[in-house]
Design a protein that fits this description.
There is one protein chain. The chain is an alpha+beta fold and 168 residues long. It has one domain: Mannose-Binding Protein A, Chain A (Roll), CATH 3.10.100. 21% of the residues lie in helices and 32% in strands. It has a four-stranded antiparallel sheet with strand order 2-3-8-4, sandwiched between helices. Strands 5-6-7 form a three-stranded antiparallel sheet. A hairpin with a 4-residue loop joins strand 6 and strand 7. The protein is globular and about 30 Å long. It comes from Acrobeloides nanus. This is C-type lectin domain-containing protein.
């Protein structure tokens, strides 16, 4: 039954066909977390940044549900992640950010999930950025890591996927 339409309303056929939405299943291979309408997955097994991003993308069953290393777009999310780190005795995690290629410029409005660029800027590249338990963010120079193939820094990470809904 549709809440907005009485049963006697002949114009409310669509109400009778609408079914409740269910969240799309996201394959978290770690600890499921939800905050501010987003699904997160804490992976405590340390790996390098590129492997972490590949694993996050692999959690999705389709392009619509692929994840990324989580973005920290507010002080609230930063605080939430710090609490998660404390609860799980984690000193540092990867977070996803972007920079302008070869500039070492991070504006923190460009995140690994593509927002707000969504591939609009060809100079956008993922950056290696981490959040430490002291609340500070640390840059790991991606260009140097790529140049010298030094991907030895391994950290736990939090994958992020938007909460999606499907009709059933």
């Amino acid at each position: 039954m549709c809440i907005r339409c009485p049963m006697s309303c002949s114009l409310c056929v669509i109400c009778n066909q609408t079914k409740p939405a269910k969240p799309v299943v996201w394959n978290c291979r770690g600890i499921n977390l939800t905050y501010e309408g987003k699904s997160y997955c804490l992976i405590t097994d340390a790996t390098n940044f590129d492997n972490a991003e590949s694993i996050c993308q692999g959690n999705g069953t389709s392009l619509d549900t692929q994840g990324h290393i989580s973005s920290v777009k507010s002080a609230f999310v930063n605080s939430y992640f710090l609490n998660v780190m404390k609860q799980n005795n984690i000193a540092e995690i990867w977070i996803g950010s972007g920079s302008i290629l070869n500039s070492f410029y991070y504006n923190f409005d460009i995140w690994l999930d593509g927002t707000p660029l969504q591939d609009a800027d060809p100079t956008y590249v993922p950056s290696y950025l981490s959040l430490k338990s002291d609340g500070m963010w640390y840059s790991h120079l991606r260009q140097e890591i790529v140049k010298y193939k030094d991907a030895t820094t391994t950290l736990p990470y939090i994958c992020q996927a938007p909460v999606k809904y499907i009709s059933t």
